Amino acid sequence: MITLYDVYEEGSDAVKDAVLAFGARHPSIGGADAEPDWKTAEKHFTQVIETIMGSASPLSPGSTDGAVRRAENAAIGFLLAIATRSDFRCPICVKRRQRPSL
């Protein structure tokens, strides 16, 4: 599965900007000017891909390569779609905050 780092390294300028914007939605502890928590951003990007892939069906029985690629491309499209929306939060972060505490 593709990593957020790979997406950045292989992407166009717009994709790179989208990756940086996604990272900025995951600030490290230390305030608004803190560097992004790239470990969390990477984990959440993978979870976005897995969520998308969970509803995808492979092109041929027994093969998930096509479904994985489609899910990765959809996740990159998602990053591009939310990159310029300053009010958009990471859906994985939102989902975690909505869980009731035990």
Describe the structure.
With 102 residues, the protein is mainly α. Helices cover 61% and strands 0% of the residues. It contains five helices and no strands. The chain has helices at 4-10, 13-24, 38-54, 65-82, 91-98. The longest helix is centred in the C-terminal third of the chain and has 18 residues, at 65-82. It is globular. It starts with a helix and ends with a helix. The relative contact order is 0.17. The mean pLDDT is 85.
SSE layout and pairing:
Layout: H1 4-10, H2 13-24, H3 38-54, H4 65-82, H5 91-98
Helix pairs in contact: 1-2, 2-4, 3-4
Question: Structural class of the helices, strands and pairings?
Answer: mainly alpha
Amount of helix: 55-70%
Q: Helical stretch count?
A: 5
Total E-strand runs: 0
Which stretches are low in confidence, meaning pLDDT under 50 for 5 or more residues running? none
Mean pLDDT: 85
Index terms:
single chain; 102 residues; mainly alpha; 5 helices; 0% strand; globular
Summed up, what is this model?
The protein is mainly alpha-helical. Helices cover 61% and strands 0% of the residues.
